[in-house]
Amino acid sequence: DGEQTKKGGAMSSKKSLVSYLRVSTRTQGASGLGLEAQRAAVAEYAAREGRKLVVEYVEGESGRKAARPELAKALAHCRAARATLVVAKLDRLARNVAFLSRLMEAGLDFVTLDNLHANRFTLHVFVANAEQEARAASERTKVALAAARRRGVRLGSARPGHWRGREAKRT
Description:
- The protein is α/β, with parallel strands linked by helices.
- Helices cover 46% and strands 18% of the residues.
- It has helices spanning 26-31, 35-49, 69-81, 90-93, 97-105, 120-150, and strands at residues 4-7, 10-13, 17-23, 53-60, 84-87, 110-112.
- Strands 4-3-5-6 form a 4-stranded parallel β-sheet, sandwiched between helices. It has a two-stranded antiparallel sheet with strand order 1-2.
- The longest helix has 31 residues, at 120-150.
- The chain is elongated, with a radius of gyration of 19 Å.
């Protein structure tokens, strides 16, 4: 049970797996969109490696949020059970260099299936790139929304008729 292999930039052994699946919104989570592919990738990896998947944690939260309760549970489970965290894609786990660094420094075993042979350096580069892309996408969205407002477009709950039939939900 203690055979060690270098995977995903962290040492992982032939021990049990804890899966963490994430989609960006609760609506996507409820629909199952995106989760099926992640789940299939994890199951295929577990079967190929002859490892047992003991639990799956599913989150419907933005990866930019620091407070992701299901990820916290998955990490705690890994520590308590000395299991390996497995994620289908690195961006499902982290788009923040500081978070990834803390995870690596904590010595938690993890595997990212889209980067099985990446080392610590390349994982940091990938996450730095994802962090920059998230910032750029956020900036593009802010610019586009500001331009729409200047043109008089009413957005979100300010749209005419948005609350029709749902007035009681408005607070």
